[in-house]
Specification:
It is built from 5 helices and no strands. It has 161 residues and is an all-alpha fold. Helix 1 runs antiparallel to helix 2 and helix 3 packs parallel to helix 5.
């Protein structure tokens, strides 16, 4: 995930304030995800096989919802409007990718609904599985988002917002 982010920053950094801010939010989300998943260098957190601290889960969920919102209500709108103005091929791609991106939104919002508030039903085994599924959905989403941005960037000028 992080390698893809660095590549995205190198390719499109500075082309749009909205995209720059969105990629910064993506970085924060990835770091928070790695902490919750106890991925290196954060792997000491879950050695005792219990849920991470609720405030860490809540912080991650807030970053997750902020990232999703920025994509849907800022960046996608900008990209789709540019595509509509500048070319039918790009518009067709945007229309094809958007439902695939929305599928990951559903997974992310479901994770948020379950884990943003503590519950006796939430145990480590379920959390670990759900976090893993979310990680895969985010990885897929980042690829689709990058494809959309790349197509627009290659074929059109992105106007800074």
């Amino acid at each position: 995930m992080y390698t893809r982010l660095q590549s995205a920053r190198q390719q499109w950094g500075g082309s749009s304030t909205a995209i720059d801010n969105w990629l910064e939010e993506r970085q924060q989300l990835i770091v928070s995800y790695c902490k919750l998943a106890a991925l290196p260098p954060f792997d000491k957190q879950q050695q005792d096989k219990k849920l991470p601290e609720q405030e860490n889960i809540l912080g991650f969920c807030q970053l997750l919802v902020d990232y999703l919102s920025a994509g849907h209500f800022e960046v996608y709108d900008q990209i789709v409007s540019q595509c509509e103005i500048k070319g039918s091929d790009s518009k067709s791609l945007a229309e094809a990718l958007y439902p695939k991106i929305s599928a990951s939104t559903d997974i992310a919002l479901e994770f948020n609904d379950i884990y943003a508030e503590p519950s006796a039903d939430n145990d480590f085994e379920t959390f670990d599985h759900d976090l893993s599924a979310l990680g895969q959905a985010l990885e897929d989403r980042f690829g689709l988002e990058d494809e959309l941005i790349q197509t627009l960037h290659a074929n059109h000028v992105i106007v800074s917002a």
